[in-house]
């Protein structure tokens, strides 16, 4: 799946890298990244994942202050919760949001977009629209300077691929028109 355990592992790694550079709380970031997609697949997965994470951490005996910090990171990490007005307030939440979005950019982002489309039986044209509606906008959603730096290169690659794909799709269409 496009949102699998490999995604979580990459997000943990990226988030810790950004957190170190930005001076964020590493333990909050690590735990939040590990649990951020635990309820992936559910509607409002960010809110649901935050609730489940809260339960798990309480069972493991974490203190309430730590749990609240992790919970905020998870609630505010997704594109859709941010669209609903749940924005990352803490540095740790900004770091998680950045890491999660970076994993939807660059070569990995492209690979994930096609995996996702394949799972749902979508077409290349659907992926092109997904680029326009979401992936090409992610560059403007970065909070930390460290992530902005990584995002630049990943965005350039996304854009290059997207433009090439569109050109080939159009010329393919034109060839079809000529034949018929
Ligand atoms: Ni994620």
How would you describe this structure to a colleague?
By secondary structure, this protein is an all-alpha fold. The chain has a single domain, classed as Hypothetical protein af1432, CATH 1.10.3210.50. Helix content is 73%, strand content 0%. It is built from nine helices and no strands. It is elongated, with a radius of gyration of 18 Å. The mean pLDDT is 93. The structure holds nickel (II) ion (NI).
CA-based gyration radius: 18 Å
- Distance between the amino and carboxyl termini: 38 Å
Helix residue percentage: over 70%
Uncertain residue ranges: none
CATH topology: Hypothetical protein af1432
Q: Let me know the average pLDDT.
A: 93
Q: What is the 3D form?
A: elongated
Largest sheet: none
| CATH architectural label | Orthogonal Bundle
Number of separate helices:
9
Whole-number tally of structural domains = 1
Summed up:
By secondary structure, this protein is mostly helical. Helix content is 73%, strand content 0%.
Features:
single chain; binds nickel (II) ion; 180 residues; mainly alpha; Hypothetical protein af1432
Question: Topology, pairings included?
Answer:
Elements: H1 5-22, H2 26-35, H3 45-59, H4 64-75, H5 79-83, H6 91-102, H7 106-119, H8 124-133, H9 145-179
Helix pairs in contact: 1-2, 1-6, 2-4, 2-6, 3-4, 4-6, 6-9, 7-9
The protein binds nickel (II) ion.
Residues 7, 11, 36-37, 100 line the site of nickel (II) ion (NI).
